[in-house]
Design a protein that fits this description.
Blueprint: H1 6-10, E1 13-16, H2 22-32, E2 38-42, H3 43-55, H4 59-76, E3 81-86, H5 90-100, E4 107-111, H6 116-132, E5 140-144, H7 152-157, H8 165-178, E6 183-185, H9 191-197, E7 204-207, H10 226-231, E8 236-239, H11 241-244, H12 249-265
Parallel strand pairs: 1-2, 1-8, 2-3, 3-4, 4-5, 5-6, 6-7, 7-8
Helix pairs in contact: 3-4, 5-6, 8-9
Bound molecules: cytidine-5'-monophosphate.
Cytidine-5'-monophosphate binds near residues 83, 218 and 240.
Length: about 270
């Protein structure tokens, strides 16, 4: 990457809207739309908005939330990343996806750990959805390799010694590729190992576990800077708390872009 424009880098940043209300998600969307490449909706958003709708004793608020949720998805149509991390038997994943894709997602994920039959079932649902809806963008099917919140000790706790980490990431990525997934969600620390087994750059790597130098890591352990992630070949970085937890989320995005530009222009500074 020799010369990069600040504006083109925005599309590489996906903001994780890990919030518990549709009002909060919509507020972030309104302040950051146009300044980043997209928005991620995951467990916290999906489960809390559903539970709020069902349990909210104030029916007026429940109706407002329902209207705002509908408006939000209409506004986002074709652009959100559904971080649903499906991992179940193929039939259950198939049925879940037949519903989820109606939300007009740009991309979504499954756990590669769910195995090839599950990933193939997901692929088939996406292909059916795309043939039935040629006017809509075809959602990207991504597979999670190893969570960026897991370090070698955590893997060891579930029976995977340190030396298994890289071969496991490589096997999961290769399996995802062989099932025609569009890419993986993986730590930027694993990018090189993944490219050894899947050199095809059409197979994208998206990277969470990203922090500006000096930021709190929270529960993330395989952490890299935004610049390192992009320099290592990530198609996009998924960033939550460094943006949503910042006093000024818009300024945080600009700092992330500065960090990417610096890393790309000065490879030695990582
Ligand atoms: O706040 P933070 O930047 O750590 O958020 C990272 C986001 O990326 C979270 O929403 C998390 O669910 C998501 N994610 C992840 N690791 C994966 C896949 C998704 O951290 N392997």
């Amino acid at each position: 990457m020799s010369s990069i424009s600040r504006e083109s880098l925005r599309k590489n940043i996906i903001v994780a809207l890990d919030v518990s209300s549709v009002d909060a998600a919509f507020d972030y969307y309104e302040s950051l739309n146009g300044k980043v490449g997209g928005f991620k909706l995951g467990f916290e958003f999906f489960y809390s908005t559903l539970v709020n709708l069902v349990t909210n004793p104030d029916s007026k608020k429940a109706h407002e939330d329902l209207d705002l949720t509908r408006h939000f998805f209409k506004t986002l149509a074709g652009t959100p990343f559904g971080d649903v991390k499906l991992c179940d038997i193929p039939e259950t994943v198939k049925k879940a996806l037949q519903n989820l894709l109606k939300l007009n997602l740009l991309m979504f994920n499954v756990h590669a750990w769910g195995g090839k039959p599950m990933m193939k079932a997901a692929r088939a649902v996406v292909d059916e959805f795309a043939s039935a809806n040629p006017e809509k963008p075809k959602p990207l099917l991504l597979a999670v390799t190893v969570l960026t919140s897991m370090d070698n000790n955590d893997l060891e706790d579930i029976g995977l010694p340190e030396e298994y980490r890289v071969p496991m990431v490589q096997s999961l990525a290769k399996a995802a590729y062989e099932c025609n997934c569009d890419g993986v969600i993986a730590s930027a620390k694993d990018t090189k190992a993944i490219r050894e087994v899947v050199p095809d750059t059409k197979f994208k790597i998206f990277t969470p576990g990203v922090r500006l130098p000096g930021s709190a890591k929270h529960d993330q352990k395989a952490v890299t800077t935004p610049g390192e992630a992009i320099r290592n070949g990530a198609a996009g970085v998924i960033i939550g708390r460094d943006i949503t937890g910042a006093e000024d989320p818009v300024a945080a995005v600009e700092k992330i872009i500065d960090n990417i530009i610096e890393a790309v222009n000065n490879p030695a500074t990582a």
